[in-house]
Design a protein that fits this description.
By secondary structure, this protein is of the alpha+beta class. It contains 2 helices and 9 strands; from the N terminus they run αβββββββββα.
Length: about 130
């Protein structure tokens, strides 16, 4: 009986480990990617359908749908929502290039502006 419980416990740990690693890999393992801002969204004052206020002060954010190109030329469609700030975040201008660390599911770090001459060749070709 102890042997069966031990085998079941080992199988359970292996299965949980595989699913945990797969979740981590798709959500947090990053690669550097580049995007061109094609449309500037309007400032939004709501989050999840409700006013987002702190101490009576309205917070704003911008929502972008971007096509990201990795350094080796792969493309991914990922959205990005700017951080909330009382005086409002600064939107990216149309035609600007941005870089970020992205995973398969989300933008993990960034984005930040980058000049067109610093883009890798594969990314520049796909973004233009």
């Amino acid at each position: 009986m102890k042997k069966i419980i031990g085998i079941v416990a080992v199988i359970f740990v292996v299965v949980v480990g595989i699913f945990g690693y797969n979740y981590w890999r798709t959500t947090y393992q990053t690669t550097t990617a580049y995007a061109k801002v094609t449309a500037v969204t309007k400032k939004k004052a709501t989050e999840n359908g409700k006013d987002y206020k702190v101490n009576g002060q309205q917070y704003y954010y911008y929502d972008y749908a971007l096509t990201w190109v990795t350094e080796n030329g792969d493309t991914r469609q990922l959205g990005y929502e700017t951080k909330q700030a009382p005086d409002g975040p600064m939107p990216f201008a149309q035609g600007q290039y941005i870089t970020a660390k992205i995973s398969q599911k989300r933008v993990v770090e960034g984005p930040s502006l980058i000049s067109a001459d610093k883009l890798p060749t594969a990314a520049k070709q796909k973004l233009n």
